[in-house]
Design goal:
The chain is mainly α and 416 residues long. The protein contains 16 helices and no strands.
């Protein structure tokens, strides 16, 4: 039995060292929880990961919550999931203020110009890494291509793409077992959890609904139904329920929605927010907090800009992560009883393949915005290629690549 105080110290540490996006954070969790501390078996860890990848929202944070729940129940899940987010939330709020208050200063402009090509490289590296792991069969490649075409050309809603892929994978375990084989990992010797009573599940859902509805009622009574805070509460609550496929996939949906004509911020600001999120630990989906901050700064509606922005950031973060806790506390007891299920393995494989197509679409969107302005931006292209080489070939920590990119952007802005 792992002492709760020991686990709490680890979750706090993890909140400050979890750089590298979802893939890097999952790798850190695996190394610390499975290999070094041996708190979970390999099979149980990847079974939990399978469930988290099937959920909308940030899979690394959900995985930490799941592991915390396995170790210490609800209090463990709250500690693990909460501490995974809080350090990043405070750091990003400070960076967002600097960006909005001083973003037009030459130094800040230069730093952001250096960050953006690095973001392109990070997305490209994620595409190759996930693609290498996910596309193991011609059918997987076909799913990725279909997902890309559906999003980039057909305009198919993102949740439809992911859910269709999951259904295809589920059926594929029977129709195409060579493409969607059952998991090769043997089942853990640990006993499966008993299915929870429906009364427990209903109680969890009722608490989750109350935690959502209470703040929303307060916001609408205080600021009004059509106020920006109320709009942000509704929008990001909806986004948290339909944004499947991890942080990079989520961004394609969010950026399309909030940067449309008359939207809350520009595409350039959205990319700047992603660059800032890359410099902080924690889930990359924290970029949504930046979106909420900037949108409210631009429309304070009678409040000071800073106060409105902090309220927008708090609303965005709360509504983004509340469903993640609910998914784990309500669903994990059932998922623990499904370890080794063939259909779940097949659905995961198909969704992962579809996510490759989603990330390809995102890479093209970001790449065109950063590397092309009426012609090729050669300096930005050189920075992106150098950052890609550092990440993919030399395995440099992403935090250092981002910081060096910002420093080079600042130097180039000074004419040095």
């Amino acid at each position: 039995m792992v002492p709760f105080a020991e686990a709490l110290r680890f979750w706090l540490k993890l909140g400050f060292i979890s750089f590298g996006g979802p893939a890097g954070q999952i790798a850190i969790l695996h190394r610390e929880v499975v290999e070094r501390r041996r708190w979970l078996s390999e099979e149980r860890f990847f079974h939990a990961l399978s469930y988290c990848m099937l959920l909308p929202g940030p899979e690394a944070q959900q995985l930490a919550t799941y592991v915390g729940w396995i170790l210490h129940g609800v209090r463990g899940g709250l500690a693990a999931g909460g501490l995974f987010v809080l350090p990043s939330a405070f750091l990003l709020a400070g960076l967002s203020y600097v960006y909005m208050a001083y973003g037009h200063l030459a130094a800040v402009v230069g730093v952001m110009a250096g960050f953006k090509p690095v973001v392109v490289a990070i997305v490209a590296e994620a595409l190759l890494k996930i693609g290498k792991r996910a596309l193991k069969h011609p059918l997987h490649l076909a799913i990725a291509a279909a997902a890309f075409g559906a999003l980039a050309i057909g305009g198919v809603p993102f949740p439809v793409v992911v859910l269709t892929a999951g259904l295809f994978g589920w059926l594929g375990t029977k129709l195409a077992p060579t493409a969607f084989p059952a998991s090769a990992v043997s089942e853990s010797t640990a006993p499966r959890a008993n299915m929870p009573p429906l009364a427990r599940t209903a109680k969890v859902l009722a608490i989750g609904l109350a935690l959502w509805a209470g703040p929303f009622i307060v916001i609408t009574l205080w600021r009004g139904t059509n106020s920006l805070p109320a709009q942000e509460f509704r929008f990001f609550s909806q986004a948290a329920l339909v944004t499947f496929g991890g942080a990079y996939a989520v961004l394609a949906y969010i950026i399309q929605a909030v940067t449309a004509p008359g939207g809350w911020l520009t595409r350039a600001q959205a990319i700047d927010g992603l660059a800032l999120a890359e410099t902080t630990p924690g889930p990359l989906i924290m970029v949504l907090q930046f979106v909420g901050f900037v949108a409210a700064w631009n429309r304070p509606e009678g409040m000071s800009m800073a106060a409105a922005a902090l309220l927008g950031a708090a609303i965005t973060t709360y509504t983004t992560f509340l469903p993640s806790f609910l998914f784990i506390f309500a669903g994990a007891p059932y998922i623990e009883g499904l370890r080794g299920h063939k259909g779940l393995t097949g659905a995961l494989a198909a969704i992962t393949a579809a996510v490759v197509g989603v990330i390809l679409n995102l890479a093209l969107v970001f790449g065109s915005a950063v590397l092309w302005h009426g012609g090729i931006e050669w300096v930005a292209l050189a920075l992106a290629l150098a950052a890609f080489a550092a990440l993919y070939r030399f395995h440099v920590n992403v935090m250092w690549v981002v910081l060096v990119g910002g420093a080079l952007g600042w130097l180039l802005r000074q004419g040095l």
